[in-house]
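Recall from the previous lesson that a structure prediction takes nothing but the amino acid sequence as input. Here we apply that procedure to HlyC/CorC family transporter from Glycomyces paridis. The sequence below is the only information supplied.
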Amino acid sequence: MLPYTLLAAAVALTAVAGAAAMVDSALIAVSPARTAELVEQRRRGAESLLKITADLPRHLNLLILLRLACEAAAIAIVAVVAFDSWHDSWLAVGISAAVMTVVSFVAIGVGPRTLGRQHAYPIGLAVAGPVALLGTALGPLAKVLILLGNAVTPGRGFREGPFATSEIEIREMVDAAEAQGTVDHEERDMIASVFALGDTVAREVMVPRTAMVWLPVDALADEAKQVALRSGFSRIPVVGEDLDDVRGVVYLKDLVRLEDGANPPVGEVMRAVSFVPDSKPVDDLLRDMQTARIHIAAVVDEYGGTAGLVTIEDILEEIVGEIADEYDDELPPVAWLDDRTARVTARLSVQDLSELFDVDLPELDVDTVAGLLAAELGKVPLAGDRARLAGLELTAEGTVGRRNRIETVRVARLPEAGDTEANTANDERHTINV
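The prediction returns the following tokens.
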């Protein structure tokens, strides 16, 4: 009867080891946030489960210890029974190894772990009480073993537990969730963008100084209102001698609150501006701007010069993509208005424009039509600004109140008789004088 008793004990130990593996897998899959919801719903065992998730490393280590102890004991018992039956130590070792490999794989490895992942919350709620008791009973022993592991393991040892999750593993989990349809592609991109914030610096998201709309410190309030309305910006930097001398920021809401007839210089109504280095990580920058409750900051380079401007919207767009409003309709790259005039997007390449009208455009260090127009004007183009070059007249178009940039440029081929006049250096250019 002794062999049968020992075999029954081995089966019982294997079952306990399988149960420990199942609970281990279930607890790893449990979400603390979801468990907190179950506590609010007053589900039985939810409070104990929430306490376990709050100290998950200790409880998982205990379950691993229990599983390994039971599995080792079962293997030893099977080896003893095999030796007692065949009286050959090598044969007993071979038989016990073969049998327990199959049993461990099916009854401790694959089966229980799959059940644990598939039924994480029912299992977690059911075993929360016994696991908490296990933590009380075996806690000191687990601490001793972890201390031993930390002493012999390089680096951090077991301090973070066997389930420590790195950023790469989280990304892989999100990719797997997208493949399974649990997470949308847009949600996956958003999560990836959050991780990328720490690797992105201010200079990568800022509006460069060449694209800044600004006001001189002696500009009058009425002029500032017009610039704000035409550019679509409600916060405009105020500069002194040049762009490297940013004095402050004028808010459109401060301008409209002025008394009727008041028209002071913007230097009297501007607010202080915050300066940030162009190498500042974007996640730190966002946190600082939220703390200081500011929406715009001047970005300075290593020499103290103005590199550009950054807003909270610029940072948020790194996470959620471009933030569009109700006017942001998708525009065709080219729309012919007649045989001599076309409306093109501001992002159309200079090369495409040259091929479109079969003209040789000036070789400037720009890539887009908007950049070409800005280079000819010597400033950021606003709606209505116009320049003539290479027999073409370029007119910036945009809706009053638009933000950030012009959307389209109206390009017209000038009459043959006007080609000579049109190609002179700065003929017929219109700018905003502020």
